[in-house]
Design brief:
It is found in: Membrane. This is Probable peptidoglycan glycosyltransferase FtsW. Pfam families: FTSW_RODA_SPOVE (PF01098). By secondary structure, the chain is mostly helical. Helix content is about 65%, strand content about 5%. The strands form 2 sheets. It has a 3-stranded antiparallel β-sheet with strand order 1-2-3. Strands 4-5 form a two-stranded antiparallel sheet. A hairpin with a 4-residue loop joins strand 2 and strand 3. The longest helix is centred in the middle third of the chain and has 26 residues.
Length: about 450
């Protein structure tokens, strides 16, 4: 049996087609090494290769053993935790909404109207997550730039012809049957940016400059939509992804100098954003900035209310100093953890926050240990953007500041839900294919990729 016949029979035993090319390359390399060893002992190449193939063992048995190793493994524990957090976030919001009244004592949120709609978003999101999870995430890199351009072009056209201004931000697109939040869509640029960097592996300083320039469309679009803090979050995430690529020596540039520059940019970014908002921002943005630094009045009332919720909170059960219904100064979804601690106990809030942080940190840990470089970078970027938002959200719910940011599972809305579950699906796909996903290389003349 020659090498080609052996590899054909062996790879047919591997059910995951994604892994066959990588396995074939590895086994072929072993056969070639052993063939050279036998040739050094005086054998002819054909005889040496036949002997090397024979020493590899039965191709069916070897293939079955490799199939056990290179099989997609669904992280069922993480899927279960996602479902639990989805249900918990849905329940927490409507428990708190039932306690929220306006100045006339009426419910601020029509629970009966919103409950069914949000439940539909939840189901659609979970279905989308499953579909993305079973997809081959490595193929995103083949069209990452085109997808990025398409996302920006669609957002610009949508805002120009169907844009809506809500709460001072022109970040909504009215599609008649649904309304899309562009700021939520921009989170999808994080895995796309990671895929673009993957295409640039091995590039020189000029390529690194291109990688930096690809940060501008996402942050610029968020800024244009009056999402100043979202632009900061996105740029911080891009910097983290770029820094990881630099750390892995993907570019032929001075690594230490570049990492120092990235660190300085990340530290200065919030300062620059605060300076801009303080001098050139809208009135509501300046008020929110004042609330962050404790100098505002109206929006700082949110932080004061959060501290009131937390003061006197018990480990379990309701804070006895709180009324059954209260006029909340913010949407319940923005202070869900504080409300949970005040009305249902600190342990309840810690359980939800702890489960969320555990899930995201687990995703980050698995991503950083990926053998596949694209999976490593995409998974890290997705986990990072959620961790940054969750960290800010926790700061809000400790009464330290008020940013009014998004948080996975705890923030409501259709756009946020669908985008969240797309990103979760990508991270699950990275976990699922961690032993099978092949590396890809790209031809310079063709816009196609090949398995290495």
């Amino acid at each position: 049996m020659n090498r080609e016949e052996y590899l054909k029979i062996l790879t047919e035993q591997i059910r995951c087609k994604m892994a066959r090319g990588e396995v074939s390359k590895e086994i072929s390399g072993h056969i070639e090494d052993q063939t050279r060893t036998f040739m050094s002992e005086g054998l002819e190449r054909s005889e040496a290769e036949e002997l090397a193939v024979r020493e590899m063992g039965d191709p069916v048995e070897t293939g079955n053993e490799l199939d056990k190793v290179h099989r997609p493994r669904m992280p069922w524990g993480m899927v279960a935790l996602i479902v639990i957090l989805s249900i918990a976030g849905y329940g927490v919001y409507y428990l708190l909404a039932a306690r929220c009244v306006d100045e006339a004592g009426n419910g601020v949120v029509d629970v009966s109207l919103h409950a069914g709609r949000q439940f539909l978003y939840l189901i659609v999101g979970l279905v989308v997550m499953v579909g993305v999870c079973f997809a081959d995430y490595t193929r995103i890199a083949a069209r990452s730039r085109e997808l990025m351009v398409l996302l920006f072009a669609g957002s610009v056209v949508g805002i120009m012809f169907s844009g809506l201004t809500i709460n001072g931000a022109r970040s909504w697109i009215d599609l008649r049957i649904l309304t899309v939040n562009v700021l939520m869509l921009l989170m999808l640029t994080v895995p796309l940016y990671a895929a673009i960097l993957y295409r640039y592996r091995g590039g020189t300083g000029g390529t690194a400059v291109k990688a930096v320039l690809w940060m501008l469309p996402g942050t610029g679009m968020a800024f244009f939509c009056n999402g100043t803090w979202m632009s900061v979050i996105l740029l911080l995430t891009y910097l983290i992804v770029f820094a990881l690529a630099v750390w892995k020596n993907w570019f032929q540039i001075p690594r230490r100098l570049c990492l120092a520059a990235i660190g300085a940019a990340a530290l200065l970014l919030p300062v620059v954003a605060a300076f801009y908002v303080g001098f050139f921002g809208e009135d509501y943005q300046k008020e929110r900035l004042g609330a962050i630094f404790g100098t505002g009045e109206e929006l700082n009332f949110v932080s004061a209310f959060v501290r009131e919720l937390l003061t006197g909170s018990r480990l379990l059960g309701k804070n006895t100093g709180l009324p059954d219904t209260v006029m909340m100064p913010a949407d319940p979804q923005e202070i869900a953890l504080a409300g949970l601690a005040g009305y249902y106990g600190i342990l309840a809030a810690l359980a939800v926050a702890g489960a969320l942080l555990f899930l995201l940190l687990r995703f980050l840990h698995i991503s950083l240990r990926q053998r596949n470089q694209l999976g490593m970078l995409m998974g890290t970027g997705c986990a990072a953007v959620f961790l940054i938002q969750t960290g800010i959200y926790i700061v809000n719910n400790l009464g330290i500041a008020y940013f009014g940011t998004y948080c996975p599972f705890l923030s409501m809305g259709g756009s946020g839900a669908v985008v969240t579950y797309i990103i979760l699906g990508l991270m699950l796909s990275v976990c699922r294919y961690r032993n099978t996903a092949p590396e890809r290389r790209f031809g310079k003349m063709q816009g196609r990729f090949h398995t290495e």
